Amino acid sequence: MDDLLDAELDLPEATEPRLPLFTLSEAHQLLEVLQHFGATDHDWGAQARHFAAELAARVPSREE
User: Which residue has the higher pLDDT, 24 or 3?
Assistant: First the structure.
């Protein structure tokens, strides 16, 4: 899976253990990415919209 990571992104070192779940901040970032791709008119866009809705239903909003 590490070969899929973009070296340009500011991510923790691979030597650091990954948490079994996303942090709230990571979940919000992922939601933003899914919402962005969900705006496309493509099969992947439909899947992104589906998972964005699922994630939004399970993650507290930023205001809370």
Answer: 24
